[in-house]
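sorry to bug you again but im stuck and you know this stuff better than me. what follows is a protein written twice so to speak, once as letters and once as structure tokens for the fold. mainly i need to know what kind of three dimensional shape the backbone takes. anything you notice is useful, everything is just below:
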Amino acid sequence: MLHLGFTLLLALVLGDSLGAAFPPDALKKSFILSKYQFLAPQELKAVQKMKAQFEDIMLLSDRKCTTRLFYRKWNTAELSVADRVMLVEAELELATAMLGLPDAAPGFAETRQRPLAFLTQIREDLRGWMATEVPSHQPSGKLRHWLQKLQTAKKTETIGCLEASAILHLFQVLNDLQCAALQEQC
């Protein structure tokens, strides 16, 4: 009985000191990014199915772009973690906006619902991480230039071009997300 009481007291003391060493908010904040190091296979499958269906639709349409939005002379790994998160957040903002558009292609609206929900959740998680971890972060020159290119494309390119760019490069966006989640070289 004495042994049980001592064990309980020890657990309470250790639990309290560990709680002070690892505040719940800190664990939650780091979990936001770490949960995206490995993406769920069913989510990746849903994105792949949507992308394949979109490619079939594109064969029947004429979507030409003058901006190579997702082409960059630098690698995501060259950016700081905060820049990586900001990059993915901007990429996801474009992707979710384009996936949210009404579509005339039969069946595509249904196919894109799961990826849209998945990508929207990621975007919201990243916004929360940025707001708590680095609320006043200013992007590096590389990222600032790319963000400016994105804003210009949004003003000058057609919706069809932006939609095609966003959907066809979703796996690059998810790779950028995993790079940000690793918080190291990727």
Observations:
- The chain has one domain: 41-185.
- Confidence is low (pLDDT under 50) at residues 2-29.
- The chain has nine helices and no strands.
